[in-house]
Design a protein that fits this description.
With 86 residues, the protein is α+β, with helices and mostly antiparallel strands. Helix content is 28%, strand content 34%. It has two helices and five strands, in the order ββαβββα. A five-stranded antiparallel sheet has the order 2-1-4-5-3. The longest helix is centred in the C-terminal third of the chain and has 15 residues. The N and C termini lie far apart (52 Å).
């Protein structure tokens, strides 16, 4: 396992950075943020940057994005919650 530094780009708190031990950047984000993220997506879906460094190598960074189906289900549940009850 490696140490990953996960930076939540949607969080506006004082310290959006968490260091966790995981096998992959995606797993580190899941442990730190509690959401499944993927390596490809559009700018509007950018959720986190994950930094890591393997021994003898330079610092690496991976951008992780919310899944499109997660975005659509989240917006659908938000719109249902804001709709007036009959």
């Amino acid at each position: 396992m490696h140490a990953f530094r996960v930076i939540d780009l949607k969080l506006v708190a004082a310290d959006p950075e968490v260091v966790v031990k995981a096998i992959t950047p995606e797993r580190a984000a899941k442990l730190a943020l509690g959401v499944d993220l993927v390596r490809s997506g559009s700018k509007c879906d950018l959720r986190a940057r994950v930094y890591f460094q393997h021994p003898g190598q330079s610092l690496s960074m991976v951008r992780l994005y919310t899944k499109v189906e997660d975005r659509s289900s989240a917006s659908a549940s938000a719109s249902e919650a804001s709709s007036p009850a009959p």
